[in-house]
Amino acid sequence: MLSLSTSPFSLLPPSTLSSPSPALTLHRPLPLIRLKNPKTPSLLAFCSPPSQAGISPISTSSSPLGDPFSDFVEKDWSFLEFDHVNTNEEIEEKSKRIIEAAAIRDDSKVLVCLGTEDFVDRVRASSQCQLLVVHYSLYVLAGVKEKYDTVRCWQGDIVDVPAKWAPFDAIFLCFFPALPCSLDRLFGALVERCSPGACVVISYAQGREIVERQRQRYPEMVTSDLPDKDTLEKLAAANSFQITDFIDEPNFYLATLKFV
């Protein structure tokens, strides 16, 4: 059983909570959900277990939004966890290449967007960086928080991640085709959240061919393709990025951009 605290707006870190009270208990498996209304505020960092944090429960009667879960609709993102192309050895090798592309240090601030639990594990094992995980699935985020209490989690779109957590030294966009915002808006948000010299790594270890299949099978979630080099070059030039590496193979995609 997993105990989490939530509110219509945020899951607050322990330092912001004043008096202990019982927590809302959610039983695994948790629903895989996404906000129906994209303007509804996203969820902030999951907090520590209730015995340590003093967590306030939801009061649906007093909430200005009424039932805080009424706008949620279940989305199943579990297909991202399955690799239909690579062996275990290939997964390890490709994940290593992707992580090394960002040149993470122990003092780096790192954002992982739509990464699998396995990828988050590998990033965490590679350094003691300050890590923020962004995903649409509360189930994935709960699993991350259950493993790593110091990792911050954000449920929603990357363009809505609070600027107060920036700047980031490395940003991993692990499943670009599921990002619903336009490329111009995405890169505008990245510019505001990158430190000088930061690396943005767009990757998919299974490559373009699998994305095309996923787009046919999950059209509501997979809404675009992986960007080609010409598109990235134009966006990079317009937003103070430099492409330092680009690989676009049938079974592996990796684009590394440096903020200058």
TrEMBL record:
SUPFAM superfamilies: S-adenosyl-L-methionine-dependent methyltransferases (SSF53335). It comes from the Eukaryota. InterPro entries: SAM-dependent_MTases_sf. Residues 1-20 are annotated as: Disordered. Gene3D superfamilies: Vaccinia Virus protein VP39. PANTHER family: EXPRESSED PROTEIN. This is Methyltransferase type 11 domain-containing protein. It comes from Amborella trichopoda.
